[in-house]
């Protein structure tokens, strides 16, 4: 895909609805051309036509199920080879159907394939391509349960904790390459995720559920401000900074040549 946009092309996964579709709208509004990735060709085509008409940008669609290895590699190839791509929104994923012990283990495997395996493979591909070009931005959509895993299904929380840790580690490795990283940690958000998981967003406390447009606008503001980790609902940034500071205090003591004294045998 060639691009006439000075901002380049943004590739967005999970783009047919919810967070992904809203990112597509906001990035098109900013002037990015788009590559939209999802399983639902009809919805992708409709969104592409709307965005082209509304913003005058170029839009390409890729029909892909990222839990399928051949589809995943198809999207990976586009990220690696299309030099017009300057921004990757790593959004595709699924949520749980209920508590972990009541969930179906095959479904949980699919969740890991999407939320971890696909997210990892595509982000690494983007990082390698962008660092070779000396510029680019990767936005990884995690979740607030990455830092409070006790509140939700363990496999889902674990998959999002992976995304957060992966982003933090990759940012360190990419320092000085011209590539920007951001992990976005939404709380409860008004999307189709709950309906697809067999629940309903309407059953949740409305005071705790953010509109998807507000979420994406806040996430993009965090990106503009240079945040590595953006938690759109968090009132005080200092609270996150305290958590990070406490984590780094542990750093010098997580590896020694002897066990801690409390583990000494009699």
TrEMBL record:
Coiled coil: none annotated. The keyword Oxidoreductase applies. Gene3D superfamilies: NAD(P)-binding Rossmann-like Domain. PROSITE patterns: ADH_SHORT (PS00061). SUPFAM superfamilies: NAD(P)-binding Rossmann-fold domains (SSF51735). The keyword Oxidoreductase applies. It holds the Pfam family adh_short. InterPro entries: NAD(P)-bd_dom_sf, Sc_DH/Rdtase_CS, SDR_fam. Keywords: Oxidoreductase. Belongs to the short-chain dehydrogenases/reductases (SDR) family. This is SDR family oxidoreductase.
């Amino acid at each position: 895909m060639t691009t006439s946009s000075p901002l380049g092309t943004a590739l967005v996964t999970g783009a047919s609805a919810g967070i992904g579709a809203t990112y597509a709208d906001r990035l098109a509004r900013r002037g990015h051309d788009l590559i939209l990735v999802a399983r639902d060709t009809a919805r992708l085509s409709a969104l592409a036509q709307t965005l082209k008409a509304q913003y005058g940008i170029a839009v390409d669609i890729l029909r892909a199920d990222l839990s399928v290895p051949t589809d995943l590699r198809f999207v990976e190839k586009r990220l690696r080879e299309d030099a017009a791509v300057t921004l990757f929104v790593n959004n595709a994923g699924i949520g749980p159907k209920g508590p972990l012990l009541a969930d179906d283990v095959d479904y949980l495997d699919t969740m890991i394939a999407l939320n971890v395996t696909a997210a990892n493979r595509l982000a690494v591909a983007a990082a390698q391509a962008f660092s070779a070009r000396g510029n680019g931005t990767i936005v990884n959509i995690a979740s607030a349960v990455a830092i409070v895993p006790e509140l939700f299904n363990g496999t889902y929380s674990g998959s999002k904790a992976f995304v957060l840790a992966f982003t933090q580690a990759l940012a360190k490795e990419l320092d000085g390459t011209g590539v920007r990283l951001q992990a976005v940690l939404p709380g409860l958000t008004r999307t189709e995720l709950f309906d697809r998981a067999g629940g309903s967003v309407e059953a949740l406390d409305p005071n705790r559920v953010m509109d998807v447009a507000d979420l994406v606008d806040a996430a993009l503001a965090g990106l503009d401000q240079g945040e590595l980790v953006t938690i759109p609902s968090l009132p005080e940034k200092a609270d996150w900074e305290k958590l990070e500071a406490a984590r780094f205090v542990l750093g010098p003591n997580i590896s020694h040549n002897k066990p801690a004294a409390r583990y000494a045998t009699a």
